[in-house]
Amino acid sequence: MEGKILEEETTADHSPANEQIANIKSKRKYDIIVFGASGFTGQYVVMEMGRFSQTYNLTWAIAGRNTDKLQNILDKLYKTLDGYEDKKIDIIYADVQDIKTVMRMAQTTSVVINCIGPYYIFGEVVVKSCVLTSTHYVDITGEPLFMEKMAYIYNRQAEENHSLIINALGMTSVPTDLGVEFLYKHFSGELKNVDVYMEIYPSSFIYALPFSTFIHDCTWISTILHLATEKQRLYYRNLLDELMGITRVKPNVSKILHRRQTSMQSDDKEWCLAFPEPDQAVVTRSIHHAKTIDNLPYNFDVRNYFVFGDLISALIGLILYVTLSILAKVEQIRILFVRFPRFFSLGVASNTGPNEKKMENSHMSLTLIGRGTTSANPPNDNLKEIAHKDNIAARTTIIKVRAKNPGYGFTSKAVILGAITIIKDHINIPKGGVLTPASAFRNTQFMNRLMDHDAAVFEIESDLIIYGQQSKLV
Questions:
Q1: What is the DSSP letter of 58?
Q2: Is the pLDDT of residue 24 over 60?
Q3: SS3 letters across 91-104
Q4: Which InterPro entries match (predicted)?
Q5: Residue 340: which region, alpha, beta or left (left: phi > 0; alpha: psi -120 to 50)?
Q6: How does pLDDT run across 319-343, given as a tens digit for each residue?
Q7: How far is Cα 357 from Cα 347, in angstroms, rounded to an integer?
């Protein structure tokens, strides 16, 4: 598989060889199959799946190409969780190099949770198999090229076959996508724009370098491929935008690197960098779907930023991004990056991933600042003279989204709860298509399930109306 990664070839041309596999949406043997269960993230998904399957009374199985490793994962599950002493979870052989095995796997379940990345390399076979067998699909990808390519190629067929293909059900991009939905529903007035600020703490890994692992090397490889495939990404993005009529917000050049007060609880300003991929790309599609399919008055723009805190960290982050973007496009350097992730990432990525303590001590805080207008009347007669014409005033609503262990703990819960929501709330979900989290789950209990199971917190921090002047957060 390493050769495939280094050649940057996707499995898009895999074909079922015209083999007809039944796609009848009858009751299937399993509610959910976790595909790629022996991978780093897949193992965490399996453990959470063990818990959730008991809560929601689900039938499930795991799948992959190494049955010995899969059995080891199940043995750990049996030893860790109560209630599995007399249960045996099925193991299904399926290999992304053989689409027939993947299709046969998909045929047996209602939903496939795909944990095999990089998705740009290995994801399309699974998507195609699910679409052809009318099976629902969820994943944890943060790769815009893969998501938008799948939407362009498979959306219509997925709609026709009543197959839901939902990407980005992890740290990227559930908090942002659902956070924007939460903000819109709680904004009393006309929402004009939203700025999203993401902060990961303990703060920036920059001061922990060198050789302090924060991510699995698969995430590193996905990042390198994202930087290396800019032309392909723009190619499919333009095709998708033309096909669906999507309009994307232009970057605010003045805020690429800027200071911002991100909370009404503190007057401190922090340094932030523009961070449009992948969350901004996902939210753009969600807004478009809301306007064109759900006929909702979503007339606002969203821009994403990453909070670094101090200027030195922000500048180092900017320099690292620009340097990696340039070097990743050079084939020989890219090969080295992929083959030796721990060395070239300065220890940030490794094949063992971060340890349990480091993951449990990591947190994500998302601040969504929504600005617009409201027709609220001034609170007293003295303010009427300075109020906007027709009592239109400026409104700023700030939403906070928080999650613990966002990279792997939150992600595991989110992707499983997404699959469960497809099963439990199917009446309130589109019948099919390649969708974003918000597009699929806008009218469901997905957000409530995230909060009920201690995956994330969505809350209003402040709601400020300004008469006759601009908000201090503008």
A1: -
A2: no
A3: EEECECCEHHHHHH
A4: NAD(P)-bd_dom_sf, Saccharopine_DH-like_oxidrdct, Sacchrp_dh_NADP-bd
A5: beta
A6: 988 999 999 999 999 999 989 888 8
A7: 17
